[in-house]
Amino acid sequence: MILKEKDAFAGTDERGFYGHKQEQDVAFHLRRAFGHSEQIRIIHDLVIEHCGERAQIDHLVIHPYGFIIIESKSIVGEVQVNAEGEWSRSYKGNWSGIASPIRQAELQQDVLKALLRHHVEKLLGKLLGIQTQIGGREWRTLCAVSSTAILHREKMPKSEADKVVKTEFVAKKAQELIGSLRGGLLKGRPWFSMQELENIGTFLLAHTAALQAELEKPAQATPPDEPAPSATPVTEPAPQSYAATPEPAPAEPPEDTAAPTENLLTCKQCGGTDNLNGMYGQYGYYVKCGSCSTNTSMKQPCPACGWKSVKVSKDGPSYTAACRKCDHQYLVYRQAAGKA
User: Fold this and answer.
1) What is the pLDDT of residues 271-317, one digit of tens each?
2) Predicted structure pTM score
3) When comparing pLDDT for 8 and 187, which is higher?
4) 69 and 180 both lie in a single domain
5) Whether 307 contacts 301, CB under 8 Å
6) Per-residue DSSP letter, 102
7) 311 in the same domain as 200
8) Are residues 286 and 212 part of one domain?
9) CA distance 233 to 316
10) Domain for residue 248, yes or no?
């Protein structure tokens, strides 16, 4: 059962976009495996806070025997983990260290465990008059990396290799960790009742909704019937609320009424615009400057969203780009009459 779907991507940077896509891919496989299960609950983009510590969990699997925290990692290239659990990755042949996503998931686990312990009396029942506890359940962490990554598992410590999985195997790995829902009861594994699963899921959804609502509250404005103070005003914090509020409707973007210009490209070397000539080469369309002989790519960032990944096509003297993210099309360059 999916209790909370993946949030929509709201950023503008390319790295964030691919990170979000990786999380979407993981969410897809978890939905296929557990979307119709009553005993397994999935929450994506869970935001939690306890004692001043805040964490965002990419994917949380709640099952009768405990929890699985899954950290998604978009990686293109190779991945190595040394004996100390330190991660490194290659990008275009260059190696660099990165923060351990496994350690990140473990820190998220600590915050989640402390939060649930603090509210355990309203989440879990009692056994023979004794309050059952969260900590005695199974706590597991996984890192789901991009399917295109190359994992050097033979060099990883077994404790790390067992927690790293490619996207297409994440649901299978989660199922292995959960094990048999019937057999586990026979083996005496501590388990959550259906009511306790419901309590935990409802509590976490309300908790993350309250935090997100608090973040989305607009700053309080000065009432119109009061004169504005001469000094810079200090905005009082909005009162705390634990109920989610509907998001305000996004404002309509202003209509672009400006006429297209032919001088959308400038030479990256001399800044010239009047002596450029459209060309095609190994890396696509570009302009060659007749003044300094410098080549400048026509793949300019999308003016609508700033995305750098665009596709340029030619139609007669006009060169048009199409953004691969928002599908916005715009004129990049128009060849002046009389030039080849």
Assistant:
1) 888 888 888 876 678 888 888 888 988 888 887 777 777 788 887 78
2) 0.64
3) 8
4) yes
5) yes
6) H
7) no
8) no
9) 57
10) no
- 21 in a structural domain: yes
The strand pairing partners of 321, in sequence order, are 312, 330
Distance CA 56, CA 274 (A): 51
- Listed in sequence order, the residues at least 6 apart from 241 whose beta carbon sits closer than 8 Å to its beta carbon are 210, 213, 214, 217
Look at residue 303 and tell me if it is in a domain.
yes
Token look-up 């929890």 returns 67
Flag whether pLDDT at 338 surpasses 70: no
The residue with greater pLDDT, 274 or 184, is 274
Domain C-terminal end among 216, 248, 263 = 216
Rg (CA), the chain: 27
How many C-beta atoms surround the C-beta of residue 317 within 10 A? 13
* 3: amino acid identity, one letter: L
Instruction: State the total domains in the chain.
Output: 2
Q: Compute CA distances 195 → 3, 113, 198, 202, 203, whole Å.
A: 15, 19, 5, 10, 12
Helix (H, G, I), strand (E, B) or coil at 3: strand
Instruction: Residue 332: count other Cβ atoms within 10 Å of its Cβ.
Output: 22
Q: Is the dihedral of CA 174, 180, 185, 187 positive or negative?
A: negative
As a whole-number percent, the residues of the chain with pLDDT over 70 amount to 83
Tell me the CA distances in angstroms from 11 to 7, 115, 286, one per residue in order. 12, 29, 29
What b/e string do you get for 271-298 counting C-beta neighbours within 10 Å, with b at 16 or more?
ebbeebebeeeeeebbbbbeeeeeebeb
